[in-house]
Design a protein that fits this description.
Layout lengths: L7 E8 L6 H13 L4 E6 L13 H12 L6 E3 L2 H5 L5 H11 L3 E8 L12 H7 L2 E6 L14 E7 L4 H10 L9 H10 L21
Parallel strand pairs: 1-2, 1-4, 2-3, 4-5, 5-6
């Protein structure tokens, strides 16, 4: 009888992804290739906990993520669990639900260094990092706190660009060029759907790992 397969090591990468862009992809690829993960699951946010501006429709953001990560399948995938669960998004509840569905997986949360100082303010932060220890990817312009990170955290000695979704939305709304920030397959979808026209509003500011928290 063959020995049992080791558990999958899965990174959960959450955010509004409004829109998903090259810096998001760099975070995910770094976590996948340097953070000891077998897969990265992208978890688009359905609804913010704190009443931030409404992002573009969930279905559009999911499709843009699919297009962004297509070359990296099957090691990257989109999970629409927040739409299946509905309501306000709290990271700890989403992770608990995924653990119940996938008991064979061992989860980690992929976050940017700028969020490390905020984790303790998230809803049930201690339970959250117990269920899914952090993989932290450095972000330009953000200092990783001097105090010890939560137990089990993996801090990668890499710093990635800080360009985020807010700036990209503003450029799209103004009709400015976004070459180098969005893959063509994502830009074409945005143009075809008429997204981000005339306003810079939307969800998170593009920070790696940004999630609803409280």
């Amino acid at each position: 009888m063959p020995p049992p397969s080791p558990p999958r090591r899965v990174g959960l990468f959450g955010g509004s992804f409004d829109p998903p862009h090259v810096c998001h992809l760099l975070v995910a690829v770094t976590a996948l290739e340097v953070g000891g993960l077998d897969e990265v699951w992208w978890i688009p946010l359905l609804q913010h906990a704190f009443g931030q501006k409404r992002p573009e429709p969930f279905a559009d953001r999911v499709e843009m993520v699919h297009r962004l990560i297509a070359p990296y399948a099957p090691r990257m995938r989109v999970d629409e669990i927040e739409a299946r669960r509905g309501g306000t998004s709290y990271t700890v509840d989403t992770v608990a639900a995924l653990r119940a569905i996938h008991p064979e997986a061992r989860f980690r949360m992929v976050v940017g260094g700028d969020l490390l100082a905020e984790i303790e303010r998230w809803k049930d932060a201690g339970e959250l990092v117990r269920m899914a220890p952090l993989v932290v990817v450095g972000r330009e312009g953000s200092e990783i706190p001097g105090r010890a990170p939560p137990p089990g955290s993996l801090l990668l000695p890499i710093t990635l660009p800080a360009y985020g979704s807010t700036a990209i939305r503003a450029r799209l709304a103004a009709g400015d060029r976004v070459e180098g920030l969005l893959p063509e397959r994502v830009r074409e979808y945005i143009e075809a759907r008429g997204l981000y026209r005339g306003a810079g509003a939307g969800g998170d500011d593009g920070r790696p790992g940004a999630r609803a928290r409280s």
